[in-house]
Specification:
Mean pLDDT: 81
Strand content: 35-45%
Radius of gyration: 27 Å
Low-confidence stretches: 1-60, 92-107, 323-332
Number of strands: 27
Distance between the termini: 49 Å
Largest sheet: 22 strands, antiparallel
Structural class: mainly beta
Number of helices: 7
Helix content: 10-25%
């Protein structure tokens, strides 16, 4: 017992010491008398109106002095010197300003429809290399050891991602779209595609493709009173782009006592942009086996898309239906929700065709596309019943218009890497027929969305969606949703980066029997909040977040300070407004860590305060951890004809 206490005490002392060291570095960095930037950004990225010239010059001198001091101390063979070498990264970090990536730069437009004579690949390992400086190489043993464990992406894998080929004509947007597609892969952190002007001629070009890999191997584990968890992943198996993900938990307190999740993904088979995935999931309340083949409208120039999916499910689902109270207003306070078995299998097939629209500007291609699609989905329930559940075959047709372009920015969901921001418009209409075992009915749905981006304004996304079935002259099982997302431009406060996010989501059920299907837990409402008693039929959620990106790197991880405020109104009344109910709120702050060169998810450690808590959640204050981004972009991409979700 004494040894355990001694070990626990020593571990606490080490944690406190590490925390004090980190706080000291941050304080030194932010102090006006000892300003130092551990990772040095390019000040040209920030508008000159933010800082006066004399302030910038003074900060630069102080920064250089402190960096020189840290470099001298790191060269000493002392404990403090080793700590500085392990914690502080001295390499400068070059940042890029927002760039319109939809129109090719002038030095590339002149190469449209030239023959691609040669493609040269510069492939960088995960550690020690710089996408903006190809001469930079690893300079310490740890970086070299990490690269030795990593399988670098094969040239064939990268070549299959390109929208241009050697010996063929260079189409408009092919360079910028190929660069974006490379960046969007899970195993590449950043990419550049350049034309070698020194070797290009009037009818041919040489292209250089520069990529920087993410370290593909990762694993995690935890031990607690609720069970033991182990996860292993390889998102670039042998440099081939195959992704293997496994998660297991043991010694759990549910009747099964364990769970396992696994998937194997093969991306872009033989340059077809068709991806195949096998999925296996075995939990007490959810079991799934499935296989899928998908090809999306991955680029604005994509003509054909489609998919085929087969899945088998065995689940235990909450009973959201309130018999005999569908026409009662107000709805009585529900009893605790019970779980019931629901087993079914799904076969899903769809195909789509995009049509290029005429361009009235001969120098540029029209990125707008008119798209048509057909979908057939067969659902067979083998166990379980409910007012909205029936075995059926669904035939859907879709017609849409999509206009997309992309901008480049930084410090959105990442910590300095290049991120592509979608802008444009999407309009889609879906119509179909459900041939069901209990009843036949028509379906109609529509969706509209837009995204606008300006470097000095920020980004604004708005979207609305409606869907409903028509049966015996009336509309039923309908849902109306809306979403709005705004983030501000990137501000600078001394050497910290600063950005705000504002997000709104609204869902309204229309003549549905599942009056308790909506909730406001976690990602669907309030961060850190969880309750099975707070459910309803209509909800309005508002989320605010502010991020301060610290200019330091600790063990290769970047740090951001996060503050948030969440509000949610929800009602279980069939025709009621959510605003007639008292809102639930959540306030908090914490830290976010991420290493852009590792496949680990973003780690967030947050403290939340919840002034109003339900009976099944008595905690006003709560520490919680999150490993996924709370916000995400809607890509304004036309997908398969969809049934509007109510969740």
């Amino acid at each position: 017992m004494s040894a355990n206490r001694l070990g626990t005490g020593l571990f606490k002392v080490l944690k406190v010491a590490a925390l004090l060291l980190l706080v000291s570095i941050l304080w030194l960095h932010s102090s006006p008398n000892a300003c130092a930037q551990v990772v040095v950004p390019d000040s040209s990225f920030v508008p000159t109106s933010i800082l006066k010239k004399d302030t910038v010059a003074r900060d630069s001198i102080q920064q250089k002095r402190f960096l020189d001091f840290l470099r001298r101390m790191s060269q000493r063979k002392t404990i403090f010197g080793r700590a500085i070498r392990a914690l502080v990264v001295f390499k400068p970090r070059k940042l890029e300003g927002p760039v319109d990536a939809e129109l090719l730069p002038q030095d590339q437009e002149q190469h449209n429809y030239k023959v691609v004579r040669k493609i040269h690949f510069v492939r960088m390992d995960a550690f020690g290399y710089n996408i903006n400086d190809t001469l930079q190489v690893p300079d310490n043993a740890l970086e070299k050891f990490g690269n030795a464990l990593h399988s670098r992406s094969k040239p064939r894998l990268l070549r299959n991602k390109l929208l241009f080929q050697q010996g063929k004509f260079l189409e408009p947007l092919a360079l910028s779209e190929s660069e974006r597609l490379l960046r969007q892969t899970d195993y590449i952190v950043d990419a550049r595609i350049l034309v070698n002007d020194s070797t290009s001629t009037q009818d041919s070009v040489d292209v250089t493709v520069i990529t920087k890999d993410i370290f593909s191997l990762s694993g995690s584990g935890s031990v607690s009173t609720s069970g033991t968890r182990l996860a292993l992943r390889d998102i670039n198996f042998l440099g081939l782009g195959h992704q293997i993900r496994t998660v297991g938990r043991f010694a759990m307190d549910d009747p099964q006592g364990w769970l396992f999740q696994g998937s194997y993904l093969i991306e872009n088979i033989y340059r077809s942009y068709i991806s195949a995935e096998l999925i296996y999931r075995n939990e007490y309340t959810y079991k799934q086996q499935g296989i899928s083949f998908q090809r999306d409208f991955y680029s604005t120039n994509t003509k054909y898309a489609g998919g085929a999916t087969i899945n088998w499910y065995q689940t235990l689902v909450p009973d959201f239906y309130e018999p005999e109270v569908y026409d009662t207003d107000p709805v009585p306070t529900p009893a605790p929700i019970l779980y019931k078995p629901l087993d079914y299998n799904v076969q899903d097939f769809w195909v789509g065709r995009a049509y290029r629209l005429k361009s009235y500007d001969l120098s540029h291609d029209n990125p707008g596309r008119l798209i048509t699609a057909l979908r057939v989905m067969n659902i067979q329930y083998t166990q379980g019943t409910g007012p909205t559940i029936q075995s059926a075959r669904l035939y859907l047709s879709g017609l849409g218009y999509s206009f997309r372009r992309y901008y480049k920015d930084q410090y959105l969901f990442g910590f300095g890497r290049t991120e592509d921001i979608p802008a444009g418009n999407l309009l889609a209409v879906t119509a179909g027929f459900e041939d069901g075992s209990a009843k036949n009915r028509l379906y109609f749905g529509t969706k509209f969305a837009f995204g606008k981006y300006k470097p000095n304004f920020g980004y604004l996304y708005g979207g609305m969606e409606y869907g409903s079935y028509r049966y015996q002259g009336g509309w039923e099982q309908g849902v109306w949703t809306s979403e709005a997302l705004y983030f501000t431009p990137l501000y600078k406060l001394n050497r910290w980066r600063w950005r705000h996010f504002l997000w709104n989501r609204t869902q309204i059920g229309l003549r549905r029997p599942d009056l308790l299907a909506l909730h406001i837990n976690q990602d669907d409402g309030i961060r850190g909040f969880r309750s099975e008693m707070v459910r309803g039929y209509r909800k309005f959620v508002l989320n605010y977040e502010t991020n301060f990106f610290a200019p330091v790197t600790v063990f290769g991880f970047r740090l951001a300070v996060v503050g948030f405020a969440d509000l949610a109104w929800i009602t279980e009344k069939k025709d009621g407004s959510p605003f007639t109910e008292k809102p639930y709120t959540g306030l908090g702050m914490g830290f976010r860590f991420r290493n852009e060169y590792l496949p680990f998810s973003t780690i967030q450690i947050l403290l939340g305060y919840y002034p109003r808590v339900p009976l099944d959640n008595q905690t006003d204050f709560k520490f919680f951890r999150s490993s996924r981004p709370y916000y995400d972009f809607n890509d304004l991409r036309f997908t398969q004809p969809l049934i509007t979700e109510f969740r």
